[in-house]
Design a protein that fits this description.
Elements (H helix, E strand, L loop, with lengths): L9 H9 L6 H11 L11 H14 L3 E5 L5 H7 L7 E6 L2 H13 L6 E5 L2 H6 L7 E6 L6 H8 L3 E10 L15 H14 L4 E6 L5 E6 L3
């Protein structure tokens, strides 16, 4: 199972992995179980991105975090292990099969009691949240056609110091290749352009994993 994206050569990717904090025992087991799924395993974030998310959650101390797109639960585990006492993570997904793998590993890591998993359309779950700005950390990693819709539901609910992370923002570098015009690439280009033009926020598109947009409210 490779976590290398096309815009990063293997030697540099290996160097990054060797000089970043690696997965713990449960996370490593989850990587291996997910790899056994075959082609679908590419949806799992890499361990370096997981560590980045753990560090960010440690710094933000989110009381309420939201994840859109959970898959087998690696990103949720990375955030949940860093939640402060009383912190909660709401996970949105549509797959009982894949999230069953997540649940087993959350139990093993003793973080299952911090996670509320909702199976169903994520937009319905987000729209049912109170409108108050209580989301301290959000991670978007689901169907690319709905990225803008997820973002627009989350941003009004984002706390003053809250952060939204959006995965796959570089899409193996295809977003910068004018010859790539497939629907997914175009959807991610549209999302990146939408956020970059949004005067409500500050955004940094980071070359972490497959590209990670880090978004926060613009200071008043």
């Amino acid at each position: 199972m490779s976590f290398r994206t096309e815009f990063l050569d293997e030697a540099l990717a290996a160097y990054i992995r060797a000089h970043s904090t690696g997965p713990d025992e449960v996370q490593q087991d989850l990587i291996e179980v997910t790899a056994a799924l075959g082609d679908a395993s590419v949806m799992q974030i890499g361990p370096d991105q997981g560590t980045f998310m753990t560090i960010l959650a440690t710094l933000l101390e989110p009381r309420f975090a939201v994840e859109v797109g959970t898959f087998t639960g690696y990103s949720a585990l990375s955030v949940a292990k860093a939640l402060p006492p009383g912190g909660r993570l709401l996970c949105c997904d549509v797959s009982e099969e894949w999230t069953a793998i997540a649940r087993r590993h959350w139990e093993r890591a003793a973080v299952a009691d911090r996670i509320d998993l909702r199976i169903g359309p994520a937009l319905d779950t987000l729209r049912a949240l109170p409108p108050a700005p209580t989301v301290d950390l959000a991670f978007i990693d689901a169907d690319k056609a709905s990225y803008i819709a997820y973002y627009e539901e989350l941003l009004p609910r984002l706390s003053e110091r809250g952060v939204i992370l959006a995965d796959n923002a570089l899409w193996d570098g295809h977003v910068a290749n004018p010859d790539r015009t497939d629907p997914t690439t175009e959807q991610l280009r549209a999302f990146n352009a939408h956020v970059a033009a949004d005067e409500r926020v500050l955004v940094a598109l980071l070359p972490v994993g497959d590209g990670l947009s880090m978004i926060t409210r613009r200071p008043a």
